Amino acid sequence: MCGIVGYVGNGSAREIIIDGLKKLEYRGYDSSGIAFDAGGKIEIRKCQGRISNLEAILSKETIDAHTGIGHTRWATHGAPSDVNAHPHANSDGSIAIVHNGILENYIEIKEWLAKDYEITFKSETDSEVIAHLIGIYYDGNLEDAVFKAIDRMRGAYALCVVAKDEPDKIVAVRKDAPLIAGIGHGCNFIASDIPALLKYVREIYLIENNETVVVTADNIKIYNADRQEVKRDVFHVNWDADAAEKDGYSHFMLKEIHEQPKGIYETLHRRIDENGEIVLDGIKMTKSDIENFNKVYIVACGTAYHAGLVGKSAIEKMAHIPVEVEVASEFRYRDPFVDDKTLFIAISQSGETLDTLAALREAKRKGARVLSVVNVVGSSVARESDDVFYTWAGPEIAVASTKAYTTQLMCMYIIALYMGRTKGTIDEAYYKEFINELALIPDKLEKVLADEPKIEELAKQLYRNEHVFFIGRGPDAGVSYEGSLKLKEISYINSFAIAAGELKHGTIALIEQDTVVVALATQDRLFEKMLSNIQEVKARGAYVIGLAKEGNADIEKQADKTIYIPQCIDEITPLLSVVPLQMLAYYIAKLRGCDIDKPKNLAKSVTVE
Ligand code: F6R
User: Fold this and answer.
1) What distance in Å separates the CA atoms of residue 18 and residue 14, rounded to the nearest whole number?
2) Catalytic residue flag (residue 169)
3) How confident is the model over 386-402, as pLDDT tens digits?
4) Which of 2, 160, 187, 594 is catalytic?
5) Among candidate residues 13, 329, 42, the one with its CA nearest the CA of residue 161
6) How far away, in angstroms, is 349 Cα from ligand 1 center?
7) Do domains 3-238 and 247-443 have the same CATH topology?
């Protein structure tokens, strides 16, 4: 995701900022840029692509700047491009900003600036609006202008600003996006993340929400939302650089598991307005398009395919349309029945998976309307789709997908709700209850994550096993496949998932004394059926880990160990139940000494057949 680095002092702002930005590369980005004081004016250099592209531009000139701000961008509003890259400046170039996050009311501010101040905009970004907004309020004191601007701004952001007329100052604001200030000797720093500054400082201030910080070479002043100066204890960072990139987590996978409440929150809230209505900005699919579909294909690979399985139940239930879910590598060679009444949904974290892309092209060729659910903005799947529904997971670094899956699930629920609402196949009360239940998930997920020590203990008991089975019914069957994939891909344990009712048709032959079976029983209406399936495997000597909703304590009579998730409606349990399975896979793989973030034989983006 986007990164920010700023510097004021006697050193080379350019070198320090580029160095800091490089430390944030692991977060994923598509463009970078820097604004620096060039003696009476602000110069900006920025471009699409790697930081090395920016370095190549900078290497052609001698730059002796001592104040500057830099940015790595992960596109949200507007495709990755030179012009959309940060920093952005106001019309006369006297103010420059870098911005992480989203300015939610940017359209309203943009229209006002265009109408009342005749401002024209160079980029498609929400961020450029902020530079102009500060520009019109600027009257010789940057922090005053920033205070006025943030009063008008809605959204979640970290913002960093410089002004031509105050060349030794950076003003930065934190609103729901990370920001720190680094305390140097004769110089000071600002950054979105600790790793960016570790080479230079170990003493930092952690900026809190709604605080504004004014950084000069010899001072860092922090102001609260009432513009009162606040004192902050110095935080000493004792992580090594490697741990810092992972925010102190031992692996990216664990960090990403913990980022799920945020990813789910973002994915939902970017699509729901204050009245609880779904807003599909940028999606052109109309009511008559939706009414015209008589079939939906969901096509994807691996984890994304598993998200599709859950999507199928949701869309069929809410929109009353038959849905087929298929792995992309099969779909593309099957001559599937697709026409202009087909909605084709491609799900892909990377947006570059060759099989998914090929299936999408095939569906398009046959006349389907293509809606994609994608994490990486501007990726091939996104570019080739008629409509894109972005997940807000942020960059996923670990090869094993975690937060992409749960945000994909969230998208599938929103799409299903939207289709059902548009077609009138769900009523107002159902819709409202469902949205309310979705909104409660991030907090419930925090509770699930708090069970981490318990899961780690369980992993200690299980990690020497060479075979693990996962069973479940309904949405739990889909989550079983995902839990099993997580385990096998990072721990190399032979793991198999099957719909619980299907066990008795053959696979149960493999269950013997002490075989580990993870039994998902989160569906109220199928709970008793699952208890019977658990009994079947217990009768053959299995060691059963049950996974159920709080309150369904009957499972303890059957299972040897039980993991609980908070109560929620049956349809959305996958958002919660997958997380203990991700943690279990993680801790088992860790105990087996596996290379968790880069499992053998696997790649993050599979661009071959
Ligand atoms: C498993 C995993 C893979 C991907 C699959 C599709 O943890 O990450 O199964 O889900 O390769 O990748 P995307 O979603 O990028 O199309």
Assistant:
1) 6
2) no
3) 999 999 998 888 999 99
4) 2
5) 42
6) 7
7) no
